[in-house]
Amino acid sequence: MVDFSEQVVVVTGAAGNLGEAVARAFYAAGASLALVARHREKAEAVLGTDLPEGERVQYVTADLTDEQAVADCVAEIVARYGRIDILINVAGGFKMGTPVHETPLQTWEFMLNLNARTVFLMSRAVIPHLLAQEKGKIVSVAARAGLEGAANMAPYVVSKSAVIRLTESMAAELKDHNINVNCILPGTIDTPQNREAMPKANFDKWVAPAALADVILFLASDAARAVQGAAVPVYGRS
Fold first, then answer.
1. Does residue 155 contact residue 115 with C-beta atoms inside 8 Å?
2. How far apart are CA 28 and CA 30, in angstroms?
3. Domain range 8-234, its CATH number among 3.40.50.80, 3.10.180.10, 3.40.50.720, 1.10.620.20
4. Domain map of the chain by residue range?
5. Dihedral pair phi/psi, residue 139, rounded to 5°
6. So what's the pLDDT on residue 11?
7. Would the pTM of this model clear 0.85, i.e. be above it?
8. How far apart are CA 143 and CA 233, in angstroms?
9. So which residues are the catalytic ones?
10. CA distances for 122 relative to 81, 140, 187, 216, 227, angstroms
11. Bridge-partner residues for 57, per DSSP?
């Protein structure tokens, strides 16, 4: 296992299925964590027993679609740890929809805000700290669906496609500053919610959150120092 004991890692969406797996993996690897969630109580209910707030764990509450809330969140983390080394943008979500001509503006804005705006705002707030130390990693969660259009999924597809293009743009801007920016493309993730929504599916073919966390840890490690602007497929057998 890679040793992250000298690293400060920010994980957004820490209360979700993937966020939980990522937080546990980095904690087991020795990292100091800032766990960001919309609702602190939910994050602590999911993680607090094994990852209590203390020397290596900080819980931070923020609405990551709000510019000032993101600025305050990052300032709170830096005030606690003195720096940020790695940003993991997990926060996001999925929602099926309607044909484009029947899609409410509210649905469009919700998906773009949840999946793309959060990555943009958090990355924008953290990058100056990475530039100041001339090193760092950013890993975001896009999706296989972001690679091509699909019926009745336009807001989601566009939002995840934006994460891929944003990843590539940041990588081009930051690669000469010893900052690596990459993203992963999960297939169908094996979560209780997905099992409930698709009870007849073959769950064995889905990708486990822990498997995704392993890839994220690799991209955040020095072993991935030559990987820049990649969108890494992690589909399992889905």
1. no
2. 5
3. 3.40.50.720
4. 8-234
5. -125, 125
6. 98
7. yes
8. 8
9. 156
10. 17, 10, 24, 17, 21
11. 33, 54
User: Token digits for 22?
Assistant: 């990522």
Number of residues assigned to the chain: 238
Which tokens go with 197?
A: 């929504």
Six-digit token string for 208: 């486990």
Q: pLDDT (tens digit, 0 to 9) for every residue of the chain, 238 residues total?
A: 789 999 999 999 999 999 999 999 999 999 999 999 999 999 999 998 999 999 999 999 999 999 999 999 999 999 999 999 999 999 999 888 899 999 999 999 999 999 999 999 999 999 999 999 999 999 999 999 999 999 999 999 999 999 999 999 999 999 999 999 999 999 989 888 889 888 989 999 999 999 999 999 999 999 999 999 999 999 988 8
Give how far the C-alpha of residue 57 lies from the chain's centroid of Cα atoms, to the nearest Å.
18
